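Hello, quick one for you while I still have it in my head. Could you read through the record and tell me how the tokens relate to the sequence? No rush at all, and the record is pasted right below.
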Amino acid sequence: MSSDTENRDINRGPAGNNVEDDTRQGSLRLQREPGNSRCRPEEFETSREQLQSQVKHLRQEMEIAQSEVTFKLAEVAEARGFETVQHVMRVAEIAYLLALKSGMDQGRADILRLAAAMHDIGKVCIPDSILQNPGKLSPAEFEVMKSHTTSGYEMLKGSNRDIFQAASIIALQHHEKYDGQGYPLGLSRDRINILARITSIADVFDALGSDRLDRKAWDLDEIVEHIRQERGRSFDPMLVDIFLADLDAFVAVRKEFPQASVRTPAHLPDTTGYGTVLNTPTHPSMSRQNSGRAGGVPQPTRVLLCQEDQTTRELLVMILGECGYEIAHADNCQQISEALAGDQAPPLAILDTEMSDGDCISLCRELRGRNGRDYTYVILLTRAANQQEFDEALEAGADCCIAKPVNPMELKAHLTVAQRILDFQRELIETRETLLRQAAHDALTGLWNRTAIMDILRMELNRAARYDTSVGVVMADLDCFKQINEKYGHCDGDTVICETAQTMRAAFRPYDGFGRYGGQEFLIVLPRCDITFASHVAERLRKCVEKQVVTVGDTQLSLTVSMGVAARCGSSNTEANELVQAASKALYRAKLAGRNCVEAAAEEGGGES
């Protein structure tokens, strides 16, 4: 793999097409056709404009398709590990912002934004036993893990599209270090492609700030200090200086895509990247304590066991095995602390107060002092007839104490109480998650409700102001829906709304917002879309609905939808409510025009003429 080939410039537009060449060639063909040899100049200009419009139209469609494929591929790669799609979105946005601040032109930065999302695509080739290993990898396992760089390159290099060519280079080189000590090629300095150098900083910044299987998230100050120390070693010094000079902007990007994500119903999966915009995270214990519960059958509870005395340890293992527990072992206080600090910490721990390398009572006090962690039920084994140690352990946060030597019947009784409390905690968390979801989603369709979609619109308007881009808004309304309700009843009317929502949802990009505004009205938020492109998206949605056939009883219904479109450019100060109002007025004009059509607001920014 020649570095000259890998590091070639990616200078064409986001769609990877030479549009100007296509247009010029089309114009020459038009001139050379015998039937057009005598066309007047104005006819020639009209034909050329039509051809340019068609090429632009196709290019926009290709951009949407490539964007969606890119994020879907990245989503698949991340889903096999324990990262989230939010990590993919954050790396893409941070790399894009750093590229712009470093002076990269808009077209190339757009390519980087999509390509950076696929930096770890090669992980689909790594075995689960290595990819999902919460412990330290052996040297042989680490060599296998490193192969994800070359695997990703081989997967993507065959494409002639600029996005995938850029992604192949990033996949191969994002673990190279500025001083030449990285892998797989040992490249250094400018021999590492600028796209990979930028993605490397974005990836490390986000990864260190996120909880992983083997460690907790670092504090921001620790991350900044690490990046500063790696300046000139792992990272390009110029890029580090640009990054640290405007650190708040990159921190803001991380806050826009929080680590957890809200789950959506299976019939309308959430691929927007806005999973936690309303601070409704999926609680980690839902995947930890209740994972694998199929058909209501409980899976074994994991218990962390630390006991230095071999005889006592064998007895505890036997008792826990009889009770159906899955045992994770720790040999010292350091391993206990690490095991209980991670996202995959067991919900139950049985620890001995007498450890040769530390004090488990102090560890228990430290555990109770941590914020934002799931509750761990702690059983401490103490010396017999030592009331002072009992009292100290309970004050430190232990849930119960058992004197040694362990009485099997007493331990089983305490385990029964522990399981009852853990089950109660799980039920409380499930109830909370249900309530949080109901507060953000429409009960009928599973889409964002009115409050949530308006919050998404405000967030996109703020981002557009920072990047000086546009945001499009589409207000859609099912035509003649009142007649459907009156003729077939409200239950069938609900079916029509749900099936229309599914039809429209399939036509969006992963990061577009889609919510039910009220009744049969839907609100669609289109980031980075001006009034022209938003109208094009609306027209495509209208055609999708027009082709749809909904079965109601023995009747097949053909539906239509009217749409109003408005957009705001980054420099405008139009508020979210004003933009929605402009789209509503345009929708009203579409209704007056005979329905089943798209009308756009007269001026970009939402104003009416």
